[in-house]
């Protein structure tokens, strides 16, 4: 019995955190995904990229069990997420931290109250322990202690994202799912957010998938890039590898005009920082 438990723990740690295969998602006659497959390796940051409308958000909703696919398999933490029943799904959801576009914080609650909400709902921690635990998440997300008592409207855009991240971390998730976390942030705040995600991934052993259009996040903030096109994950590899591929969508994305402008900016910044050093 002990060794069976041990083996099952070992299997889980070797398996990908999430495995999607043969996924189809349709809205009426229109299918956004068809025969889509993807595996998220443990402890890595995956950037989910693709043109507008390619189905990044729908894929993240599928992965977080907010949307049941029309066909295909979804395995989370080694379990068949579409067959585990309501209670099983609740247990799996607890292991996922979500940060969707806009932050989606409750505006009538302070930052600390927002973070305490999922803790109240899913744990038996109460009283000052609850406050302390929530405070530890606020600090973990890189917010100053005095932001805990503030309302979302009193925070900058970057702080709202961090507050939403603190809430996503509330239940100590193993998988963090982020939908365009740096959109609307200036480049410095965005770089700070990317660095924080990297730090948390490394120190907490998180697995992260983030939909993004941000070239900095793709190149510097991720280990792997899942490129969505033709209703599936057309390619899954580090950005530098994808930039060498010849499929027309990848050429347009990684070697098109926007990329050339980015490369120019990168080399001028590198020149400036060399000049400064
Ligand atoms: N609830 C829905 N009902 C009908 N169609 C939907 C629904 N949700 C998404 N879609 C459609 O699915 C397609 C993919 O949408 P999705 O939001 O996943 O794209 P995206 O890649 O995240 O785009 P963006 O980069 O612009 O955020 C779009 O054509 C969208 O209109």
Automatic annotation (TrEMBL):
Gene3D superfamilies in UniProt: P-loop containing nucleotide triphosphate hydrolases (3.40.50.300)
SUPFAM superfamilies tied to this protein: P-loop containing nucleoside triphosphate hydrolases (SSF52540)
GO molecular function: ATP binding
Top-level lineage group: Bacteria
Stretches assigned to the ABC transporter domain: 18-255
Sequence intervals crossing the membrane: none
This protein's UniProt keywords: ATP-binding, Nucleotide-binding, Transport
Protein name: ATP-binding cassette domain-containing protein
């Amino acid at each position: 019995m002990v060794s069976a438990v041990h083996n099952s723990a070992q299997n889980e740690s070797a398996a990908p955190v999430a495995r999607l295969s043969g996924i189809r998602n349709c809205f009426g006659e229109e299918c956004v995904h068809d025969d889509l497959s993807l595996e998220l390796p443990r402890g890595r940051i995956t950037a989910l990229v693709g043109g507008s409308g390619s189905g990044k958000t729908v894929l993240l909703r599928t992965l977080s069990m907010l949307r049941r696919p029309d066909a295909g398999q979804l395995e989370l933490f080694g379990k068949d997420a579409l067959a585990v029943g309501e209670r099983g799904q609740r247990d799996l959801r607890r292991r996922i931290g979500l940060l969707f576009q806009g932050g989606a914080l409750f505006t009538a609650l302070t930052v600390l109250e927002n973070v305490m909400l999922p803790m109240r709902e899913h744990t038996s921690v109460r009283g000052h322990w609850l406050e302390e635990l929530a405070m530890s998440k606020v600090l973990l997300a890189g917010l100053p202690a005095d932001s805990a008592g503030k309302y979302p409207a009193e925070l900058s855009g970057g702080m709202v994202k961090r507050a939403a991240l603190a809430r996503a971390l509330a239940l100590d998730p193993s998988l963090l799912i982020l939908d365009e976390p740096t959109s609307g942030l200036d480049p410095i705040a965005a770089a700070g957010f990317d660095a924080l995600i990297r730090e948390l991934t490394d120190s907490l052993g998180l697995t992260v998938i983030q939909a993004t259009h941000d070239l900095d996040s793709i190149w510097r903030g991720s280990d792997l890039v899942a490129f969505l096109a033709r209703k599936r994950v057309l390619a899954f590899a580090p950005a530098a590898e994808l930039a060498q591929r010849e499929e027309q969508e990848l050429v347009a994305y990684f070697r098109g005009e926007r990329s050339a402008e980015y490369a120019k900016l990168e080399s001028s910044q590198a020149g400036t920082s060399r000049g400064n050093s």
